[in-house]
Amino acid sequence: MRTLTAGEVFSDIAVVWRDDRDRAGRIARRVVRNLRSGGNILDVGCGTGFVLSRIRAEARANGKRVGRTVGVDLAEGMIERARARSGVRAIVGDALRIPVIDQYFDVVVATDVVRFVADPERFVRELFRVTMPGGTIVLELVAASSGGRPKAKGLPSDSLLRQFLDLRRSYGVADVRNTLDELGCEVTEWLGRSRPVDHDPSFLARLGRYSATPEDLMAAKRLTNGSGKASSSPRSVVLVARVPGPRTGGMPIRVRDLPRWSPARVQRLLDGLPIARGYEVVVKPLRWRKRPHVQAFCDFTDKLITIQVPAPFFSFKEYVPYRAKRVRRGRRMYFRWFWRTVWFDRPDELIRYLYLHEYYHWYLREVRGRKSGAETACDRFALQQLGRGVGGYAYSGLAD
């Protein structure tokens, strides 16, 4: 038997995986406490999707509306189980390169995932990248060096039980917290009461019986006969990190030559959207000739986001390109464009859309330090933030 990747190991053990109801309940309560009504939730390393289903149930019990609940996991076997749960959208993806656009989710959850990734710091920064300003990251951590954990000594290298136990990596809980501090997060630490699955003899015995190799069966027998409970089982730590950047207030707004419009009215429209810190929003009329159309721009020199509203305003449609795919035909390469037809029936929708589009230009330049001319990425961000959707959550815009 060859050495399996982490995704293959977790896919193989998906059929015998046992979810911890108490842990899921505690995580769900913390998530719902930090969730704004209608907010989107992402679970990285979602496994069978059990935590997401508990979050949805907890939100219903508290009368709080939930937006999209999305799970990402490297193991296809786990994703198949997660997709069977009502209301959970599960996609296969790497935790070190989460297939989701920047700043999309209000709450991002990761329960006992850090021990199984190659680069914990990069993982934490990925969680930060996909969380909205003012959003929350909920991380459950178990120190890989915790005492009392079963060891793989004596098992052959091709043993499924050994390959599962060998996936654990060493990292420092303090290092994870330091990374969150460097990113400007406000971190609260809670002591958990969860027993990790690799410290649970009954689960490991079940895994050994499922593997059915002679060595794993022998290990399963020892675990069954020798321990009903693990000695020196570690206690987990839950970090609740508030991402900097409020979603309301803080931007000066000017309105020019638009009757019945005022800065206060524009502010009400922009409430709940991420803020382009240090920039002023200017709303002014667009004197169109043939038909109404969209027009806005971000001035990095004068630090202005200018939004133009067609005057007079009539309902109109706009073809918005949200993705381009390179296609080779013979020796020639060309782009295949993907479009979404968007109807703007009121100035309110148009202002929100144009602001989000220009905000993403600001974010790419001022926060990520990149070139800001990624028009399709900005359109994709605006469409998804407004719930228009582009067929999924991935970089490509297609996660179906």
Q: Can you describe this structure?
A:
- By secondary structure, this protein is an alpha/beta fold.
- It folds into two domains: about 5-240, Vaccinia Virus protein VP39 (Rossmann fold, 3-Layer(aba) Sandwich); about 255-385, no CATH class.
- The chain is about 35% helix and about 25% strand.
- It has twelve helices and 13 strands.
- It has helices at about 5-10, 20-35, 50-60, 75-85, 120-130, 160-165, 175-180, 200-210, 215-225, 265-270, 345-365, 375-385, and strands at about 40-45, 65-75, 90, 105-110, 130-140, 185-190, 235-240, 255, 280-285, 295-300, 305-310, 315-330, 330-345.
- It has a seven-stranded mixed β-sheet with strand order 3-2-1-4-5-7-6, with helices on both faces.
- Helix 11 (about 345-365) packs across helix 12.
- It is elongated.
